[in-house]
Design goal:
globular, mainly alpha, 61% helix
Amino acid sequence: MSQLENLNQNRLLRTPEEINSFEMSLDEIRSKPNDEDLRAYHLVLDDRCEQPEIMFGLIHF
């Protein structure tokens, strides 16, 4: 599974496992950024997210 797929799969951040997986993928993406995927990263954002402060990290990325 790609890091982007993992972000999408865990984007609601409902459990500690989803939060950890999301943050690990975001860290990996930060270490190897690809500007071509920027649009796809924005599509990960979801108003149903239960941890908006973590989603905030994606916005600033």
